[in-house]
Amino acid sequence: MNSRFAFIAAPLLVLAYGVIRILDGLDGSRGPGVAWTTGHLAFIGALVLFVPIFWRLRHMTGRTAVATVSAVAGTAGIVTLIAQFAIDIVIGFMAADHDAMGPLFDQVQAMPGVQLAVYDAGPYLFYVAQLALVVHVALRKAVKAWTPVLVLVGLMLPMIDKDLIPVGAIFLLVSFWPLARREAPAARHALVPCV
Fold first, then answer.
1. For residue 135, which phi and psi values (nearest 5 degrees)?
2. Transmembrane region positions (predicted)?
3. Cβ atoms of residues 133 and 57 within 8 Å
């Protein structure tokens, strides 16, 4: 897969998810329905694109042990987030309305290990690994020092308020732009720092 495409498309899909999520909540509740499913599919698409992003960032660090561990952890986090969003989609199809979704989520989360792996711990591997890899690339001076700062802001905004997901996605897009530029056809064979 073209990693330049992934660096641009992943934040745009997160942006799409955030906007769809806001629109879905305009009636006072989120899901089930077309917006619920479409938004979740957009985020799953972004997560799939983060796999080559993480491994490309690992490559940009010189394949260090820290970067390798971060990429592995991040990929594990991606798997748990895809599981979480897939559960959301399935429950959206099963539930007649928003109120019916709650008991279905309770049943899934009551299964041994699901709450910890899919909701409480696993997803954080994705976010921590993302920041760790970008910091590592910045320490190697492959991107500007502000790049990890933008990634951090982009990650923190949705934790403050999920309605800030689109804003966080824009920060992510801006921070990934120099990385995408590195992946331009002329730069694919020789890694040189961005100017």
1. -60, -45
2. 34-55, 67-96, 116-135, 142-158, 164-180
3. yes
